Amino acid sequence: MRLMPTAAITLALLAPALAPAVAAVPPAEAAGGGYSATIRRTEYGIPHITAKDYGGLGFGYGYAFAQDNLCTLASWVVTLRGERSRYFGPKAESDDPVRPVSNLAGDVYYKSVAASGVVRRLLARPAPVGPSDELRRLVDGYVAGYNRYLEDTGVANLPDPTCRGKAWVGPITATDMWNNLLDLARMTSSSSFKEAVTGIAEPEPEGPQPKPAAGSNAWALGRQATRGGGGMVLADPHFPWQGIRRFYQVQLTIPGVLDVSGGSLYGTPVVQIGHNAKVAWTHTVSHAQHFTVYRLKLADGHSYTVDGRAEPMGEQEVEVTLPDGTVSGHTLLTSRYGPVLAIGRTDEAAYALADANAANLRAADEWLAMARAGSLDELRTAQRTYQGMPFVHTLATDASGTAYFADTSLVPHVTDAEAERCARPSPVPGLDAYVLDGSTSACLWGRDGDAVVPGVFGPGNQPRLVRADYVANSNNTYWMTNPAKPLTGYPEAYGQTGTDLEPRPRVGLDMIAQRLSGADGLGTPGFTLETLQATVRGKRNLTFELMRDDLLKLCRAHPELLDVREACRTLEKWNGRATLDGEGAVLWREFFSRLGRPTKPGEPVFSPWRVPFDPARPLTTPSGLKIDDPTVRQALADAVLRFRSNRIPLTLTPGQAQSYSSIPIPGCTEGEGCFDRVRTGGPLGTDGRYPEVNTGSSFMMAVELTKDGPRTRTVLTYSLSANPASPHHTDQTALFSRGGWVTERFTPAEIAADPRLETVTVHGGH
């Protein structure tokens, strides 16, 4: 740990003999009525924050987070304030890990958000539309704790060289944190349209440039699926490995009020994925629609018509400061629906973005209320009260062993009939959205009586399922949450039914089925915490399993393909697991990735499946390999040529080819049908290495809820600190590489029993 010796901090490195004293509650308040919190760090630097109130809890959390990751949040605050061009240049790429844009495009967008006044208006509203008093105190405390650490340490003395001594590092404000929470809610909607909103776009670099994307696996196992009869949760979010969308592992405790442990996204004072003593939950990104685009019928250059009447567009004047001190001015247009896009405009029409999350700060309160829930019913009440989940499914269970799935995300209230009646052509190819007629109020979003805010579907229209066996999701649509009870009949805005599951969701459901039948070789049927861990780290590659037999038939049927004989022998020996030592795993990836490419420019993507998808058999189709198609043979020959021309061994393993901070990383890709997927920053290099892993399993949590309390195993794949000088920069990454887990310390006695425990009490003024 890095602790500053100031009068505000009391450090006590407790010897094991004194460990039981750790359970004591810290002083109620610091001298003068300020904040007070105790930070206890266990293995891998994991902080356990305890305070007597929400302000103190936020203070301790903000202080602990700043110790580990101040530079990441400091950089993001520059982004949220629209000041990146000033410090880093307008053409440099922003620090958005999900969809980076040029700094100028990002600055204009975030300046426009600030100018809209949306956060100010929400803060003036009472809960549930505005933040609760508890959340406001938590945010204020978090800001004060972060700033206290910065004041104690000094910018010139920060331990992270990334931002040490930098002019762009300074105190943060509560407004910065509210803006971060709003931007998180908009992550898959408005925030993904920065270039379209601002009209500022840089030319795409040559060659494929895959961007990190959010994904996830999640299981909630009920009493019929577990050996112990209680509930279990697997959390396996696939979020970026760099930047502000990383998870930070933390426990937050106010004795008698709140005690939650789990993963908390950087710069947020609440746990998004986690558990308390009785309830556990996780999330996956939903396929539901979270925005629509409205086609505006222009009356002239600055007005449009609705029901035959002209409405003027609003104008936002935005100024961005450049490195030389000059100002770049921009005018953005707005409409009743939202910002007018700079793309697709003609003399007759323009397009506006309507975002269901445009004014959503409720998610943080919802997560806070879920963390206080004492049962699954109370968790569901929290979701109905706040209705703030921005873009994710929820999967949860409790100690009774009831499994719950719901898509409670904010979805525009557009019925199937309205979508068909109001549909208009997309302004640009590939814009995946409902494009509706904005010239008539008959195409406005509707309203449900049980919805907290207008324009979105209420709880009564949301897909949900409660089971005693299990619910599962791997970013597939809701319909195959449990194959024994397919979900249908919900508005298409939540996603389609009867569609191809894709390989990753299929392998996840198969893993559950094999464990429940005992066919996976892990012993007696049913899940224990140990078999859950073993199941999810199995590294199965489903496409190889489904195509292996046909591929070997191809090898035997075409002996004239001399150049691929060694490749065939390699793949025949491979066990289909993307382990560090999996000889054949990378060869398969390179072959399979070539199967999915268009055979010629402009042609459709080739489907390699011998048996096409059949909606009546969603768990077993598609399957097989089209070995009679010359495209398949050519893909294999091309993959082998790639290896040989660069003198890369065909037995190249994941451990040799992919890494993070020089640590080998197991796993394979989404398209291959890998449950614990990885994504790298680009294609295989001529040196036989991929660019560094940038997305994949992030905060993994396996928790069993028992009558004696939770039993939990976790691993934070990229580790706790982004600071390269920290001892916790890659320690859990090395653990993840070798298949290990951290045994969570949740109770005061478990925390006190850690012989490496470090404890500090922090104080600060309001």
Would you kindly provide a written description of the structure presented here, covering whatever features stand out?
By secondary structure, this protein is of the alpha+beta class. Among the domains are: 165 residues, Orthogonal Bundle (Penicillin Amidohydrolase, domain 1); 94 residues, Penicillin G acylase, beta-roll domain (Roll); 133 residues, Penicillin amidase (Acylase) alpha subunit, N-terminal domain (Orthogonal Bundle). Helix content is 27%, strand content 21%. The chain is built from 19 helices and 28 strands. The strands form five sheets. It has an eleven-stranded mixed beta sheet. Strands 4, 5, 20, 23, 24, 25, 26 and 27 form an eight-stranded antiparallel beta sheet that branches. Strands 10, 11, 12, 15 and 18 form a five-stranded mixed beta sheet that branches. Helix 1 packs across helix 5, helix 8 packs antiparallel against helix 9 and helix 13 crosses helix 14. The radius of gyration is 26 Å and the shape is globular. The N terminus is likely disordered.
Lateral arrangement of strands in the main beta sheet: 1-28-2-3-6-7-8-9-16-17-19
Helix count?
19
Distance between the termini: 25 Å
Low-confidence spans: 1-32, 205-213
GO molecular function: hydrolase activity, acting on carbon-nitrogen (but not peptide) bonds, in linear amides
Pfam families: Penicil_amidase (PF01804)
Protein name: Peptidase S45
InterPro entries: Ntn_hydrolases_N (IPR029055), Penicillin_amidase_A-knob (IPR043147), Penicillin_amidase_dom1 (IPR023343), Penicillin_amidase_N_B-knob (IPR043146), S45 (IPR002692)
